[in-house]
């Protein structure tokens, strides 16, 4: 029901009404909000010249614009936990992103997730993911059991793109008031090489700009032989 509500772009109030009409409970307290309202949808549709994506409080990717996909690679093929940044980072899958301090980045994500988990104790999917990570990943377990309190915030990152090369961008994490969603935006300094590369990505999108392998032409005598047997 929550996935359907995201597809229909329902607000929390509209989601609760739809649940009541369908005869389902619509209790959201204690579970992670994942409903993207009209304001976030407008940001995604209008900010076409910057890579932008919406995540829930636990760092699960909910939606993104086309330039985000062009920068990071097509992400819609991922599903379930593979769309969660903490899960991917804990499995050494940063994608195309190169962090200036990977261990600090990982520690801040785990500390941030611990805070989120304390605010959403009834979210069983979140609790199950954390339990599996603590059991299977010693580094995650060590960070989770630590006493550090931190929140993942903005920093400069490098994206290794297969067609346009390395792009150094500023990554800002914004909070959507009243929805408890995170918006991540990548931007480049004006008139910089990174800005030029982002503009190029708006043009090429998902196209593969590598040169196709050409099949060499057969020698002339082979052509004659083929023609003779036709």
Round the mean pLDDT to the nearest integer and report it: 81
In percent terms, what proportion of residues is strand?
15-25%
Global geometry: globular
As residue ranges, the low-confidence spans are 23-27, 208-230
Give the strand tally. Answer: 6
Terminus-to-terminus distance: 62 Å
Structural class: alpha+beta
Offer a quick outline of the entry.
The protein has 230 residues and is of the alpha+beta class.
Structure description:
This protein is α+β, with helices and mostly antiparallel strands and 230 residues long. The chain has helices spanning 2-7, 12-22, 38-46, 66-72, 85-90, 102-119, 124-136, 138-145, 193-204, 220-229; strands at residues 52-56, 61-64, 97-98, 155-161, 165-176, 181-187. It has a six-stranded antiparallel β-sheet with strand order 2-1-6-5-4-3, with helices on both faces. The longest helix is centred in the middle third of the chain and has 18 residues, at 102-119. It starts with a helix and ends with a helix.
